[in-house]
Amino acid sequence: MREAIQVSFWKNIWSNLLQFTVIIKNLIAKIIINNFLYLVVATSKINGNKVRLLQSHSLSLVWSLRDTSKLFIIIFIIICISIKLNKFVQNILDRKCLDKKSKRLSKELINLFNFRTDLASERRDIYQKANNLEKIDGIETDEEEIDENIKVERVKITNENGQNAIGKPIGNYITIDIKKLKIAQEEELQKSADTLANELRKVIDAHDKSGEILVVGLGNVYVTPDSLGPKVVNEIEVTRHIINYLPQYVNEGTRMVSAIAPGVLGTTGIETVEILKGIVDNIHPKMVIVIDALASRSIERISSTVQLSDTGIVPGAGVGNTRNELSQKTLGIPVIAIGIPTVVETAVLVNDCLDIFIEKLQDEAKSNNYLNQLKEEDNYEEIKEVLNPRDYNLIVTPKEIDGLIENMKEVVSRGINAAV
Description:
This protein is 56% helix and 14% strand. By secondary structure, it is α/β, with parallel strands linked by helices.
């Protein structure tokens, strides 16, 4: 594109110069012819003014030629300005082309890897595996093991390199993995909630330590894998109305908390960001906490992982149904997102099952180079290419999703109530 613009630019300059040359040539010819005729006529007259006329028209020719030289000087100045202008335009084009190229490349990379996961840690792993990298510039990672069932991983994106690599905004992403949540008892649920509360409290305090918080539960309450947000909202201890109307019944320093489940576009006809913008503009909270169901690239993470982030959320991004983002850019206040994977694609399921099958074969065969190589490869894209044309690449969820949602609802709601 840039080369085409440069060629067009120089063609215009060359065309203008040719036009100037023709005009100057005609002008010079006209001046010389006119002066020559004047001289001929003047010398042919037999009178006393012959010498005077010769001198006068000779002087006119000199002045005309001097005007022509002025034109040449003007043209020379125009050429110099054009060269400078071209360099200036070229620099601008270089910058714009680089910006567009980098943005285009980042989008192409994101589309190429087709992450189909909302988890920053999974996106990082996919990118590292695809590029044979041990570390990505612009991404910092820290891990902490709470106990044998709970592990915390913190991913921090520090610059545009990290942002472009995994397609997530600059910020903090905290992933809490909870094993055996399906069969977790009260003690395990409370410990998971305490871990979430500790991490959430750090994120909240980094932005505001006492201001009002609006808790938002995204999702469709009538679709079990998507019902986590509204169910959590029902368990939130809201205090805004009590502080406003019955302040004598609350402890001093209690934070104002309000909550809402705005529903989904298909049932309300209104984008979630439009609903929340109206609420934020009227009640003026200092921060929004959004709870939503996510998509994962691993069946092990279904309702057993919690991701915290301080960069907001794009509802539906993980399943290809992207809505308007909820972030500080759109709402004007910090947005903390709490996301829990509840669904995977069929391609993910088949890929994971294939890995499990290969592991079983390896255990039985003890050693097999082909199976080792096959397991190391990510077969997601190949499987997806087979499933997509036949509309078999469905979004699936485990049969125990009801119990998993109930357990995760307890973890998230208790964590939020303790943190705020």
